[in-house]
Design goal:
226 residues, alpha/beta, 2 domains, 6-stranded mixed β-sheet, 8 helices, 33% helix
């Protein structure tokens, strides 16, 4: 696939070839959905906790006699029906971690990258550098490139000046290529990548680099809908 490469001035400087194994993969909705759910679940701490009626401190004495009061029968004060009592079926600490085969995770990433490229939301830059950390300079660069919505900027290696220049902008995030993930790609409208970042992504998640075959995963047919 031939794609144009833009300078920070918004001009096309060259055309490069990008790998069809990474940027032209049929969209597999089932795999992408599973990868997104897994990533969001694995980000949960699972530390929410409530006390049951047996864990609430206080007297266990029966509040009043069983009969003759005209009131509904009542037991201990820690009943879930009473203020200050225990919680019935409340959250308890648990592990939300989900497993997913490596090849499926890689396929999901290739699918969302291909969707960005197919929808015209991928822009490749020759480089992304600013002389010093200034938010104003990053605003000027994005305006020159025509970025008027949320954007994920992917660079080869973390650069302090770029990260500091973009971190105060709403809807803008910078990310090194090796930390690229499904949730971040789907959360931002535009995807800006440097040429070096593209080559690193191809090296990390290309099928040949991973020693995988081009055969589809067993039991999961690729979807034809983008």
């Amino acid at each position: 696939m031939q794609v144009p490469v833009y300078s920070l001035a918004g001009e096309v400087v060259e055309d490069i070839e990008i790998s069809d194994e990474v940027f032209a993969v049929p969209f597999n909705q089932a795999v992408v959905h599973q990868a997104m759910v897994r990533q969001r679940a694995n980000a949960r701490q699972g530390t929410a906790s409530t006390k049951t009626r047996g864990e609430v401190s206080g007297s266990t004495r029966k509040l009043f006699r069983q009969k003759g009061t005209g009131l509904a029968r009542a037991g201990r004060r820690s009943s879930p029906l009473r203020r200050g009592g225990g919680i019935a079926f409340g959250p308890r600490p648990r592990d939300y971690q989900q497993a997913m085969p490596k090849k499926m995770r890689q396929l999901a990433l290739r699918c969302v990258l291909s969707a960005k490229a197919g929808d015209g939301e991928l822009m490749i830059l020759d480089e992304l550098k600013v002389p010093e950390p200034k938010t104003r300079e990053m605003v000027r660069i994005l305006a020159t490139l025509g970025v008027d919505s949320s954007a994920l900027m992917v660079i080869d290696e973390p650069e302090e000046s770029v990260v500091k220049s973009a971190r105060n902008l709403v809807g803008i995030k910078t990310l090194p290529a090796n930390l690229l993930n499904v949730v971040d790609i789907l959360s931002y409208k535009r995807l800006l990548m440097t040429v070096a970042a593209v080559r690193k992504v191809e090296q990390l998640w290309g099928k040949k680099a991973q020693g995988g075959s081009s055969a589809p995963l067993r039991g999961i047919a690729p979807s034809t809908n983008n």
